[in-house]
Structures are given as structure tokens and as C-alpha cells.
Amino acid sequence: MYNLPNILTISRIVVIPVIFLSIYIHSTLWSILAGVLFVIASITDYLDGYLARARNQNSILGRLLDPIADKLLVVSALLIVVANNLVDPLSYIPVIIIMCREVLVSGLREFLSEFHVGMPVTRLAKWKTGFQMTAISMILLQNLPLIGMPVGVLGEWLLWVAGILTFVTGYQYFEKCLDYVCTVEHNKKNPVREVEKEVKKIAAKVKESVESAVAKKAAKRNRKPQTAAVDGNTKKVSKPATKSVKRRKTTRSRSKTKTTAPKTKAAAASATSESATDTK
What we know:
This protein is an all-alpha fold.
């Protein structure tokens, strides 16, 4: 859990209160410090994902905290920009769009998580995050002597670009969620599909019962030889052995009958010869 990518993610959350203090501490040095900390935090947003993939250190804690840290960092920085009047009042429009989009996407993901449906980040959303971080960094660092106001104006224009991309990605996410809700409602109202589902369930049950019956028959055919108790000692007797015993018994009985038959014939012959001598 406490690997380097997760530590970088947690550091973005920890640095937020320090950046937020620039609202109350009105000094050039503190505003420059807030801008530098925001730039460092924005860089860690890229590094934690790269290190997690490179070192194979993906974790559940990182997946949980990474989007939360990004949203907290961006929203707190936008509040600082508005509170310190670092942009023109007309530029409050993209600020409001960005904040509303973050709330909308969070609500959509929470709703879809109940149905175990994910909402992956699109490539356009990644570009949007890059424009947001760059614009806010330029606006916060416009008080540096070497940079000056032109950088702040450029950051304000990039903030408008980020606001447009934010609106587009938010609409895309909302459209996907709405399509999913419509398909679910359509399936509920369509009785044919419900019947198909029931038929599939019955077919699956029948298939399981047939497979179990076949397995039982195969087990009966391949079952172990029975045991028979002889003189208190158990001996294994198989069916082929009993058949061979029966055959031996029948052959012995036949041989006995064949041997007794000649004896009886000889005895009869001797008896007849003795009776003939007596008569003489």
C-alpha cells in the first residue's frame, strides 16, 4: 500500500491546505510558493501513474485516491484563482463549468457503480486535465518577476480551452450513462426479452440435470469392486471372478458325472457276469 506511487498521490492531498492558505496570506512570496507547489503536484499526477505501470505497483488504494486527489487539487486551485481575483470575471464561466463537471462525473460514477458498470477515462479527458493543470499553473505564477502578466493572460486563454474540453467530456459521460439507463428501462418494458431470459435459465437447468445424470451413470459403470466377507476376513471379489468361479464349478460337476458313469457301467457288467456263473 505504501509504495512510491501511492505516496506521491497522498502528497497531492497533503499539499492542498498549504496552497489554500494563499487566499488568506496576501503576499507575493506566498502566491509564488502556492504556484510552485501546484506545479509540483501536477507533475506528481503524471509520475504516480507512470511509476505504478513501470514498477507493476498498481493497488486498490492508488485507484481510489488518484481521481480524488486530482479533483481536490483542481477545485481548490480554482477557488484560489477566483478568491484572489487572478482572472477576469468573464473567465469565471469556465471555472464554474469545470466545477460542475467534476460533481456531475462523480455522481455518474457513483450511480453506475451500483450496477457494476465502469466509466473509463477517455483520451479527451486526459487532454482536458493537461490543459487545466497548465492553465492554473500559469495563472498562479503570473506574479513572478521573470514571467509577468503575459503568462497569466495565456493561462486564462488555456483555461477557456480547458472549460470547453471539460464541457464536451462531461456531455460524453452523461450521454453514455443516459444510454445505459435507456437500455435498462427498455429491457424491463420488453416482455419478449424477459421470456427469453426465463427460457435460457430453464435450458441451463435442464442441461445441468442431464449432465449430472450422465455423470452418475458413468460413475456406476466405473465403480469400485464389491467386497465380500469370508470367514470374518473381507476379500475383494469382482464380477469377472465370480463368473470364473461358476464356470469352474460347472466343469467340475460335469467331470464328476463323466467319471461316475463308467464306474456304474463296469459295476453292472461285473454283476451280470457273477449272476451268470451262479446259474451255471
